[in-house]
Amino acid sequence: MINLTAIVLAGGKSSRMGEDKALIPIQGIPLLQRVCNVAKSCTDTIYIVTPWPERYQHLPLPQCEFIQETPTDTQGPLVGFAQGLEKVKTEWVLLLACDLPNLQVEVLQDWVKRLDFVEQENIAYLVKNPQGWEPLCGFYRSRCLLLLLDFINQGGRSFQQWLKLYPVKVLPLSEPDILFNCNTPEDVQQFIVN
């Protein structure tokens, strides 16, 4: 198995959802647990970065360790990622948002096999769409932490702006629906209907 750690971000305010989306059951399994189960197929080391670890303590999340997200003046996924990255000891990190109900074990395992072929200068291996990178379902080299902290310390908060500064390899995506994220009650309804 490749030298890999997973970080799952569960720090969003879920304002469009109206309730904590990490706890919303999709086919009977809370979203956070679903995402961690898929991550488990790629690595034994999974960190969940969240300001509210106590909210999720009751979920069966073996092999997962909580990292208490420290409040900063400006929260956001970039800051949460940096706080998680400080714990990582492996070369690669699989970063996942907690609201990806369509993740597929086979696709992620296939992606992991390709990491050996990512050129050294690339700090990340991510899917690109017409709007930009898909930063919350992809791979980063853990050595990007210093670059990330530098960007945050200069006031940067956008993954897109940060990723423009460095070489990133494009990750081929054959099934775009695996990147679908649940943000609204309407998004959840799709899974109840299907």
Account of the protein in words:
The protein has 194 residues and is α/β, with parallel strands linked by helices. It is built from 7 helices and 11 strands. The strands form 3 sheets. Strands 5-4-1-6-10-7-11 form a 7-stranded mixed beta sheet. Strands 2-3 form a two-stranded antiparallel ribbon. Strands 8-9 form a two-stranded antiparallel ribbon. Helix 3 crosses helix 5. The longest helix is centred in the first third of the chain and has 10 residues. The protein is globular. The mean pLDDT is 89.
- The side-by-side strand order for the widest beta sheet comes to 5-4-1-6-10-7-11
What is the end-to-end distance?
34 Å
Strand content of the residues, in percent? Answer: 15-25%
Number of DSSP helical runs:
7
Radius of gyration: 16 Å
Cα shape:
globular
Q: Secondary-structure element sequence? A: EEEHEHEHEHEEEEHHEH
Mean pLDDT: 89
Task: Describe the SSE topology.
Elements: E1 4-9, E2 25-26, E3 29-30, H1 31-40, E4 46-50, H2 53-56, E5 64-68, H3 77-85, E6 92-97, H4 105-114, E7 124-126, E8 128-129, E9 132-133, E10 137-141, H5 145-153, H6 159-163, E11 168-170, H7 185-193
Parallel strand pairs: 1-4, 1-6, 4-5, 7-11
Antiparallel strand pairs: 2-3, 6-10, 7-10, 8-9
Helix pairs in contact: 3-5
Describe this protein with a few key phrases.
194 residues; alpha/beta; seven-stranded mixed beta sheet; two-stranded antiparallel ribbon; 21% strand
Give a short synopsis of this structure:
The protein is α/β, with parallel strands linked by helices. It is built from seven helices and eleven strands. Helix 3 crosses helix 5 (145-153).
